[in-house]
Write a sequence for this structure.
């Protein structure tokens, strides 16, 4: 998420890769304080951003680094009319109050002229200490120390958009935190057009609209799009007259960004040819809580005939997981603008997972692949891809020639594997064999 936002605002990671990988504290190169504040207003993964004044692998190195920091950059925050306080944060270790005071007193060489105000200071300075990631092996001295001026931090975004308070929800409404992470992976910005082909109750549209993008979506479920049928909320039997996607965006003052949601099958062409969308952000059905289906005809193998409360009838047939994802990639390759991003969740069975099974397309470049655990033997990967090549007719079915197409077909049985408890059975067999 941070990498995507940095590429959007023009910043980058520092060259110190070792710190970035093995520490919760990351050093970033951001052109201005305004950009740093803008990044913090969007991110849900970072807690705070600081202007770094000094850094070292020991207290001595930190103090030497602080002495070399330009005095003219310090003075605006240390003058006699200002108030300040110094806060200490240690990762993976707890310090006593006496130890904290000792570390603060050691900074007396800094030219602080203002008054200490612990309740409402103008400027807050932090000492950050990193004691590693292993709680069972905490060192006496920290691996890294940092000192800087606190610039911005926010965690209210997730709470204010909580699904618990949302007007219209479904069985699989996306968690607010994850929906904002997905919008950030998609580098959604004002005036973009963002599309969700499995829109459901529109949870992913809300996060994109919050960032100023115009949003639209499709879903095969007539009842969900029209807000009809049984409610998903506890102690509520039927959906109310105003439970729909538009009402969700209206709840957050985002209705002006709502284009429309259509009842449509994502596997069938409904859009005119051309590059229409700046980002496609979606969570396809896995067949766990929502069925994987597409429209069919009476001549095809019929799975079921469904009738909505509006006497709307359609025939649906099986829609394998592998086909869902390859159709999605093909659609993104054709309808994304150049540089546009596809962000989606890919369910996987962990004992069989390798990176080779991630669906690919010659027009799309894999940007990131992050895991969220679902159970001991299943998880889902947040896949981010970027369009790097214009779509040609010969690219339409190019994945069929790719060796990666066949390995992913194994995930068509994801639902059975999700409920199977295979891992437990294997562990029991191994235990019995050891006896």
């Amino acid at each position: 998420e941070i990498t995507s936002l940095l590429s959007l605002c023009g910043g980058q990671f520092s060259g110190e890769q070792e710190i970035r990988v093995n520490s919760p504290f990351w050093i970033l190169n951001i052109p201005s304080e305004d950009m740093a504040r803008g990044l913090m207003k969007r991110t849900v993964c970072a807690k705070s951003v600081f202007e770094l004044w000094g850094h070292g692998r020991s207290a001595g190195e930190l103090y030497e680094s602080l002495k070399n920091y330009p005095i003219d950059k310090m003075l605006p925050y240390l003058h006699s009319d200002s108030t300040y306080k110094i806060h200490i944060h240690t990762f993976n270790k707890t310090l006593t109050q006496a130890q904290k005071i000792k570390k603060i007193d050691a900074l007396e060489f800094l030219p602080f002229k203002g008054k200490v105000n612990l309740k409402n200071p103008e400027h807050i300075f932090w000492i950050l200490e990193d004691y590693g990631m292993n709680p069972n092996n905490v060192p006496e001295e920290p691996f890294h120390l940092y000192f800087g001026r606190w610039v911005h931090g926010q965690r209210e975004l997730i709470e204010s958009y909580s699904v618990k308070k949302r007007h219209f929800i479904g069985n699989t409404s996306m968690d607010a935190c994850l929906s904002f992470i997905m919008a950030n992976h998609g580098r959604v910005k004002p005036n973009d057009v963002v599309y969700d082909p499995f829109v459901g109750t529109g949870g992913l549209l809300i996060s994109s609209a919050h960032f100023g993008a115009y949003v639209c979506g499709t879903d095969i479920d007539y009842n969900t799009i029209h807000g009809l049928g049984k409610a998903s909320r506890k102690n509520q039997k039927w959906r109310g007259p105003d439970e729909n996607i538009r009402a969700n965006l209206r709840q957050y003052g985002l209705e002006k960004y709502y284009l429309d949601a259509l009842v449509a099958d994502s596997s069938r062409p409904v859009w005119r040819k051309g590059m229409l969308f700046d980002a496609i952000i979606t969570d396809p059905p896995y067949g766990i809580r929502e069925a994987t289906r597409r429209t069919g005809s009476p001549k095809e193998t019929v799975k079921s005939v469904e009738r909505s409360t509006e006497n709307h009838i359609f025939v649906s047939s099986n829609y394998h997981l592998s086909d869902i994802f390859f159709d999605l990639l093909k659609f993104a390759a054709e309808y994304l603008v150049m540089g546009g991003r596809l962000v989606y969740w890919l369910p996987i069975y962990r004992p069989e997972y390798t990176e080779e099974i991630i669906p690919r397309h010659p027009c799309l470049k894999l940007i990131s692949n992050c895991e969220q655990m679902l159970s001991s033997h299943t998880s889902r990967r947040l896949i981010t891809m970027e369009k790097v090549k214009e779509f040609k007719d010969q690219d339409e079915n190019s994945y069929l020639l790719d060796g990666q197409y066949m390995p992913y077909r194994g995930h068509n049985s994801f639902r059975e594997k999700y409920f199977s408890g295979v891992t437990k059975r294997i562990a029991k067999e191994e235990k019995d064999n050891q006896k």
